[in-house]
Specification:
Layout lengths: L2 H17 L3 H65 L6 H29 L2 H17 L5 H25 L8 H33 L5 H31 L4 H27 L8 H81 L14 H17 L3 H15 L3 E6 L4 E4 L1 H7 L3 H4 L16 H10 L4 E8 L5 E12 L5 E10 L1 H47 L7 H25 L6 E5 H7 L1 H8 L3 E6 L6 E5 H17 L5 E12 L3 E3 L2 E3 L2 E10 L6 H5 L18 H11 L3 E6 L5 E8 L23 E5 L3 H14 L2 E5 L2 H9 L6 E7 L7 H11 L4 E6 L14 H4 E3 L4 H13 L2
Parallel strand pairs: 7-9, 15-16, 15-17, 17-18, 18-19
Antiparallel strand pairs: 1-2, 1-5, 3-4, 4-5, 6-8, 9-12, 10-11, 12-14, 13-14
């Protein structure tokens, strides 16, 4: 049998099998034969790449976790040396030990953050929780231990930290990295560098104890001999490991060689000092500060090498991940391309026949139904292509009969679906067509307007000079644009932007007109709201500015009144006049505070408030605001009702609700303000949300006014929504109330009916029991005498002199500056004693108070800052570590308030 005959005999079974299959089955069979091997191969390749990426990502987690852990190790080693030196008798380490404990607290917080993110994947959370408690316990107990117990406790704790470092290296695959360069870098940061730092850290602690005391140290010398040998051995092993890493990856040398050489030199210098001064000498002949400096420099170089090595290793691993991702992406892309090509090939073979047959069937069905829009693909040159070309020619002949009709239907549908109101008229102005938007906008049906003139929309409110110009424009064939006032079917009017365009026939003559009407009601409403809001903002800025200047004047009035009262006897006839001046100043201060609330420039300072007390303070002010024709009733619960929020915000809630209630009762009525505690066992639903279970303080404000409809209540808290006449309200009052209550985790519900008044119920979270401890109040006259130098920075001369005088009378040495540049110049000069406090205004012309404070803090880091201002749009900057409540003094203030705040700031930790 010839070769060709043999091949045909082998092909015969396949040909018979394929001949019995449909085209779809053939495509599937060929696709399986080609695609399954491709998919399997690609999946194995991508899986291998994914495993490598996962492995390296785990390593990077170890580096990320190890960085704060090593910082904790470094600071604990320094803490050990300082503690041993301090307890050995060197008192110079007392302040440094406190600062070191603060750094350790920051380190613990950093490791906490890393443990929350990575601990579950590195299996460190349980071990770290135990270690963290031991660190905090040691910080709390270290001052009560002797030197031996301190050293032992530190050694045990540091051993646990080193154990956790090794654990992180194991669980993060760092110690398992198969590549030589990565392995040696990982070994350095997991094993060698931490061990080297600890050996030298123990040398530092033992040597510091020997340098402090003058007794014999035979045991300590033996320990130093062992530790020195270990340190030198580890340093040598570390150097050899880096040599191997450099050989495998020479690019590492540029970033690591010089730090390694520096570290190697510093370590050997330290070891020589130990050998000469501690081990080989008959007596210890080195001072603690010098020894501590040399030891710390050597240990710091080890940690510096650790950080650089960790950074380089992280960069190497990141590059490796990027390389694997690139390989994986390339493999996936190639696989997808191959898969796409195979699918495309088989789909084309199948669809080329199926699609042609389906199109022919669809064309035949369309022609039978009168639809000639279907066309067949004619690119093929086979029999199916010839048949398609003949059928297309037949469809063209049939389709010409329907084309014009379909185009007209399409135009009508497009006009009817348009969002703008559209009217089509003939040349004489008779309406031929209106769309659905026109009917919705004007209230007419199609039957009511077809055949009529668009004059049915005229309201009589449009300037009559517009219409002649309109007809002149459109009769000339141009487009007219303008604004008119239309009247709806129900008689209501609205402003509309009108565009009329002529339509020409085949001879170029105008045959029809198309008009588009755009309702301007919402845009005009939005413009009015914007104008009102801009007016409110302008008035608010004016009020804030007036309050700022007024508060400086009121500070001087209150302060100098207090000075006069100090010098007047109780029976002095002038004392009553001075008391009246002070009282008037206090009333003016209350008025200024209301200006700040109005202008939204008040400082938000949450504090514990008694709701009945605050409402009681506002009683007189509310009486003046609502007028004598309205009865104001306050129903107190009788027991203190504690909540925690900003007093100004709470007062703003009461004020806005009272004003709204007053406006709802122009002929007079009754407003009832009531407070009560309430305990909700289950959630309470209302129109504007749901009140969850809990303990609340309930504030109810009820009136006997006109009430509100259901529709009004639906939009009640929306910004700019108002039922008042134009110019009578901004629509911002209740939206402001709603925002304040929501900001303070409270809830508000409304109960109202037309003609039956309105009740607002406000639920504010009750202050927790632990906040109910009364704060200690320093009685007047018991403030301690001041001491030290205070710098007063204030551009208002009256306030500046008031502060200077009050501080000087209390015993402080006072320096004053009229502007920030003068204050900075004073701080740059030679001072007889250090500055304890800077008292500075917030708002000044040449430089703000916070900016001046930052410059002065750079010159005197220990200085404390107390800000004061009568205008709180500016706040204490984030660089200040004092909370606003402890570092801010609101103008106006009296000398007693100033001194109390100064002493509180100076004694705050």
């Amino acid at each position: 049998m010839s070769g060709e005959a043999a091949m045909r005999s082998l092909q015969r079974p396949a040909a018979l099998l394929l001949g019995r299959m449909k085209y779809k089955q053939k495509a599937i069979l060929l696709g399986v034969v080609v695609l399954i091997p491709l998919i399997v191969t690609t999946s194995f390749l991508i899986s291998d790449i994914y495993e490598r990426i996962t492995f390296v990502r785990q390593e990077r987690m170890g580096i990320e976790y190890g960085r704060p852990l090593m910082q904790l190790l470094q600071d604990m080693q320094q803490h050990r040396a300082m503690s041993v030196a301090l307890q050995g008798g060197d008192a110079s380490f007392k302040d440094r030990l406190s600062a070191q404990q603060a750094r350790i607290a920051d380190d613990v917080a950093a490791v906490d953050s890393a443990d929350r993110r990575l601990g579950p994947r590195l299996r460190t959370t349980g071990r770290w929780d135990i270690l963290r408690k031991r660190v905090r316990a040691l910080n709390a107990q270290v001052r009560s231990m002797d030197a031996r117990r301190t050293l032992d406790a530190h050694n045990a704790l540091i051993a646990e930290i080193l154990s956790l470092v090794i654990h992180v290296g194991n669980t993060s695959n760092l110690i398992l990295d198969p590549r030589l360069d990565s392995y040696h870098l990982s070994n350095a940061i997991i094993t060698l560098l931490p061990a080297l730092s600890e050996y030298m850290g123990q040398e530092r602690a033992i040597g510091a104890a020997m340098a402090v005391s003058s007794r014999e140290f035979s045991t300590e010398r033996s320990k130093l001999i062992v530790l020195r040998g270990k340190a030198l051995a580890i340093a040598d092993m570390n150097a050899k490991g880096f040599d191997v890493a450099f050989q495998e990856r020479p690019s590492l040398q540029s970033g690591l060689v010089r730090p390694l050489d520096h570290c190697h030199g510093a370590v050997h210098v330290f070891q020589e000092v130990i050998r000469e001064k501690l081990i080989g000498a008959d007596r210890v002949d080195i001072k603690v500060p010098e020894y501590y400096r040399i030891a710390t420099e050597a240990i710091d170089t080890v940690f510096a090498v650790y950080r650089l090595t960790a950074r380089e290793l992280d960069a190497v691993l990141a590059a490796r991940i990027a390389e694997d991702i690139h390989k994986g992406g390339l493999a996936a892309a190639i696989a997808l391309l191959a898969l796409g090509a195979a699918i495309w090939f088989f789909v084309v073979v199948h669809m080329s026949i199926k699609s042609a047959i389906s199109d022919m069937i669809r064309l035949a069905e369309g022609l039978a139904a009168g639809d000639s829009g279907v066309r067949l693909e004619t690119a093929s040159r086979d029999e199916l292509g010839d048949l398609a070309r003949h059928l297309n020619r037949m469809a063209v002949q049939i389709g010409q009969q329907f084309k014009a009709h379909e185009f007209i239907k399409l135009q009508a549908a497009a006009l009817d679906a348009a969002g703008e109101a559209i009217v089509v008229t003939d040349r004489d102005g008779s309406i031929l067509f209106v769309n659905n938007a026109f009917c919705r906008q004007n209230g007419y049906t199609v039957a009511e307007v077809v055949g009529k003139n668009p004059r049915i929309l005229r309201s009589g409110l449009t300037d009559g000079r517009i219409y002649p110009k309109l007809w002149e424009t459109i009769l000339s064939g141009a487009v007219w644009n303008g604004e008119v006032v239309n009247r709806r079917c129900d008689g209501s009017t609205y402003a509309a932007a009108l565009t009329i365009a002529p339509v020409r026939d085949a001879q170029g003559r105008v045959s029809h007109y198309i008009a588009a009407h755009h309702d301007l009601t919402e845009r005009r409403k939005a413009e009015a709201q914007l104008l009102q809001a801009q007016k409110m903002e302008t008035v608010g800025r004016l009020a804030g500015g007036v309050a700022h200047d007024f508060n400086n004047l009121l500070t001087a009035i209150a302060g100098y009144s207090s000075f006069l009262l100090q010098n007047l006897k109780s029976d002095d006839p002038n004392r009553a006049d001075v008391l009246e001046i002070k009282a008037v100043g206090e009333r003016a201060a209350a008025l200024t505070k209301q200006l700040l609330i109005f202008s939204r420039k008040q400082m938000f300072l949450p504090q514990r408030l008694d709701i009945d007390g605050v409402v009681g303070e506002m009683h007189q002010m509310l009486r003046r605001i609502i007028g004598e024709h309205i009865d104001l009733v306050f129903m107190s619960h009788g027991q203190p009702l504690a909540m925690k929020m900003d007093k100004g915000q709470f007062e703003q809630i009461i004020l806005n609700l009272a004003v709204n209630a007053r406006d709802a009762m122009p002929q007079g009525g009754r407003i009832v303000v009531e407070s009560a505690p309430i305990e909700l066992k289950e959630a309470r639903s209302h129109r504007h949300g749901k009140v969850p279970p809990g303990s609340y303080v309930l504030l109810s404000v009820r009136d006997t006014g006109c009430g509100m409809s259901e529709e009004v209540q639906t939009h009640l808290f929306e910004p700019f929504f108002t039922t008042k006449e134009p110019g009578k309200g901004t629509g911002l009052g209740l939206s402001t109330v709603y925002g304040i209550i929501e900001q303070n985790r409270g809830f508000i519900e409304v109960d109202s009916e037309p003609g039956r008044g309105t009740a607002f119920k406000i639920y504010l979270p009750k202050a927790p029991d632990e906040d109910e401890r009364p704060q200690a109040v320093v009685p007047k006259g018991t403030l301690p005498a001041g001491a030290g130098t205070v710098l007063v920075l204030e551009d208002d001369p009256s306030v500046r002199e008031l502060a200077r005088r009050a501080l000087a009378q209390n015993g402080f040495t006072v320096l004053v500056a009229a502007d920030p540049l003068e204050a900075v110049s004073i701080c740059e000069g030679l001072l007889k004693e250090p500055l304890r406090l800077l008292l500075t205004d917030m708002v000044m012309s040449k430089m703000s108070g916070p900016e001046a404070a930052l410059r002065i803090q750079a010159l005197h880091p220990e200085i404390k800052i107390l800000y004061m201002s009568g205008y709180t749009e500016q706040v204490v900057p984030p660089q200040s570590h004092s909370p606003m409540a402890e570092a801010f003094l609101m103008k106006p203030f009296t000398p007693d308030v100033l001194l109390d705040k100064v002493h509180a700031t100076l004694t705050a930790s």
